[in-house]
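Quick one, C-alpha cells below. Sequence please?
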C-alpha cells in the first residue's frame, strides 16, 4: 500500500510521455526536480524522527540560502559553491543559538520575530499601496526570512519535534481560520447549515469557498497577496536555475504559482501582479 503513490506518479509520467507528440524537448531534469520536491515534502509531513527532520532541514536551508543570496551573495558576485557553504554555516549558527536557548525561550523568540515580520510586512505593503516605500525596508523580507528559517528549525529541535509537527501547527491554524466561515454560514442559513434539517453539500462547501475567495480578494486588494505570489515565484525561479534547469519565463512561473491560492490559471494576473 505504501508504494501506490510511487506507482501513481510513474504511471502519470509514462502516460504523459506516451501521448506526447514531441518527446525530444522534454526536460528530464525538470521532471526529476518536480518529483523530488514532492517526495521531500511527503517525507517532511509523513516521516518521523530523522526521516522528517533531514528533508525539512534541506527545505529550510534552501529558503535561507535564497534569502541570503538576494540580500548579500548576489551583490558580491559570489560563487555558487561558496554561497551554498556560507548560507549553510550562517543557518546552522542561527539554529544552534535558538536550540541552546531552550524550548520556552526559543518559542518566545520565534513569536517575536514572526510578529515583527508580520507588522513590518503590513507597514511596507500599506506604503506601497500609496505609491511610497522606505529604502530601509528594501531587504526586510529577506533578512526576516533567513532568520525565521533558522529559528523555526532550532525551535523544533529544542522542543523535540519534527517537520511533521510544524505542518501540523499550520494545518490546525488553517482549520481554526476556516471556522469563521462556519459562523457566517450559520448566521445566514441557520438550521439549514447546522444540519438540523439535513446536511447540504453545496451550502457547506460553498460557504467555505466564498469565504476563502473573499479573504484572498482582500489580501490582493491591499497588495499583500501579490507580494506573496511574487516572492514564491522568484524562489522557484532561483531554485530551478541553481539546479541547472532551464527556468520557465517570468510569466509562466507567476501564473503557475498564482493558480494555487487564487485559481488564476490565466495571463490576466500578470497585469495586476
Amino acid at each position: 500500500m505504501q508504494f501506490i503513490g510511487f506507482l501513481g506518479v510513474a504511471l502519470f509520467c509514462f502516460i504523459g510521455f506516451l501521448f506526447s507528440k514531441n518527446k525530444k524537448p522534454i526536460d528530464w531534469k525538470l521532471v526529476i526536480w518536480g518529483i523530488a520536491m514532492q517526495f521531500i515534502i511527503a517525507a517532511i509531513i509523513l516521516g518521523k524522527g530523522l526521516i522528517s527532520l533531514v528533508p525539512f532541514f534541506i527545505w529550510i536551508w534552501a529558503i535561507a540560502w535564497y534569502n541570503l543570496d538576494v540580500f548579500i551573495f548576489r551583490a558580491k558576485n559570489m560563487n555558487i559553491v561558496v554561497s551554498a557553504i556560507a548560507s549553510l554555516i550562517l543557518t546552522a549558527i542561527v539554529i544552534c543559538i535558538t536550540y541552546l536557548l531552550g524550548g520556552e525561550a526559543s518559542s518566545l523568540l520565534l513569536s517575536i520575530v514572526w510578529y515583527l515580520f508580520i507588522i513590518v510586512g503590513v507597514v511596507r505593503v500599506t506604503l506601497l499601496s500609496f505609491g511610497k516605500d522606505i529604502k530601509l525596508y528594501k531587504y526586510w523580507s529577506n533578512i526576516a526570512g533567513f532568520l525565521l528559517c533558522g529559528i523555526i528549525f532550532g525551535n523544533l529541535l529544542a522542543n523535540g519535534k519534527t517537520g511533521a509537527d510544524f505542518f501540523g501547527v499550520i494545518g490546525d491554524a488553517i482549520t481554526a481560520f476556516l471556522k469563521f466561515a462556519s459562523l457566517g454560514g450559520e448566521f445566514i442559513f441557520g438550521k439549514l447549515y447546522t444540519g438540523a434539517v439535513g446536511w447540504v453539500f453545496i451550502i457547506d462547501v460553498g460557504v467555505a469557498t466564498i469565504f476563502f475567495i473573499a479573504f484572498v480578494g482582500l489580501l490582493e486588494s491591499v497588495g499583500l497577496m501579490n507580494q506573496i505570489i511574487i516572492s514564491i515565484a522568484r524562489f522557484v525561479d532561483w531554485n530551478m536555475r541553481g539546479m541547472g534547469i532551464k527556468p520557465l519565463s517570468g510569466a509562466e512561473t507567476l501564473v503557475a504559482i498564482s493558480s494555487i491560492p487564487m485559481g488564476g490559471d490565466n495571463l490576466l494576473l500578470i497585469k495586476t501582479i
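Residues 103-129 form the longest helix (27 residues). The mean pLDDT is 77.
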